[in-house]
# Entry
Amino acid sequence: MLHQLSIQNYATVDRLEIEFQQGMSAITGETGAGKSIILGALGLTLGDRADKSIVRGGATKTDICAEFDTSRIEEARSWLIEHDLESEDSSICLLRRVVNKDGRSKGYINGSAVTMANLKELGEKLLDIHSQHEHQSLLQRSTHRKLLDEFSVTKKLRDKLESTFKQWQQNHKELEALSNQSEEYSAQTQLLLYQLTELDGLNLGENEVESLESEFKKLNSADETLNGISTALAICQENEAQSVLSLMHSALNALRELPNRVDRIDSILSLLESSEIQLSEAVSDLRSFQDEFEANPERLEQINARLSELHGIARKHKVKPTQLIQVTENLRKQLSRFQNSDEEIEKLSVNEKLLREQFTTIAKEVSEQRKKGAKKLAKQINSQLEMLSMPHATLEVSLQARDSFEPSPHGLESIEFLVSTNPGQKAKPLIRIASGGELSRISLAIQVITAQTSQIPSLVFDEVDVGIGGGVAKVVGELLRKLGKRTQILCVTHQAQVAGQGNHHFFVSKSSEKNATLTQITELNEEAVIKEIARMLGGDDYSEESLAHAEQMVASN
# Structure
């Protein structure tokens, strides 16, 4: 439900923060006081169009934020998760709209920038404004179907229809993809066979490329390696007079012949003796390596040819030579899939027929429940319309068979609420009803009947009392209060009989200061509610009788 609405610099509002509760909230005030501001602000958070004229004079931007409690709105929570827009507190959802004085605007959901389409889509799951606003969901056929199905079709059957359709849809996509590709398969199969023959002919071993490249580097630098070894051996031993071993031997003899050697000289002597041993071992290892090392020009040429072959084929496949084994496996799998495509198409075709039959069977059950429910729903709504002083209005729930024979996520027919407001007048879509007051009362009648099954959490009614009074207004108020037991109701009204039914009451007023007009919205306590109801009954100069009548109206709730 709508928990809080914050408004800054919108029209004649400087700053407002309004907290709403469950039940019916009446919103009243003098004509021109700005009761429409709440509806306008809410409309902006739900994605309505905006222009620079709404920005309060002297301000740089309008900033509006609506906070919703989504703990019981599964559809909204699922939408937020699907679009990766959920908040840290999954039970809270913030819709925000900022409009700059140049007319540009931005929308946010839980702090993330979104499109106006996103605001509209999510907003329809959170709140419904019954007036002539563009986003009113009751004007959409999808809402008509949803309300009828929630009213008349069991949830188990609805879920079964949706699940079967999704299975058919997935199977159908795979079948179409394979069928469309089958014409290309022959040519592609020949290409794959050629590529695999070439790759298999390589007889490429595991890690062969890495091994060949390592051996190539070794053989390619054979001359430099042998020259380096010879030079090192000559320096270390072969030059008897100036070799490292000879010089080290001389150094050791010089130290050994010292008279009265101190401990430190002995320590140095020990290090040199250890170095002489290690150097001798190194020279021995070098000689052994020199004897074993073989420069093999023929082998180098073979390796070079093999690597050139591998690199050439790798370039054709636009991969590295080390990836050729994986390329071979991928092509083999693709060829297998192509060769088995006929079997797969046959399997998918059989499944297509089976799923169509299952869908049709389930959809027919849904249609039967819809037909029965449509008559029952229309009858109950028409009874409510008569109570709402629309005795000549007749609502019909039209079920129109779809032209396409393809399965649809919503069954075999489209659904639309049609209304005739005058005797002999042909029923027409709700969106073509000119009177906002008529549309509001029709919406009210529909919501009262479908409230027990509808998932819409918050409803706003804008002047549902237009053109009515007396006993009918009292009925409207009672219906709204009754509806408020199941869903949150915000009602802008001029009728005391309607306002008197509110669980909560907000008063809209305006004042002028420093050449500026400011709008304020205040929640009234019980005493103030009685005075406001009395004002609505008898004007600003209300009498004791008006007060008594107002007190009686409030007390009767």
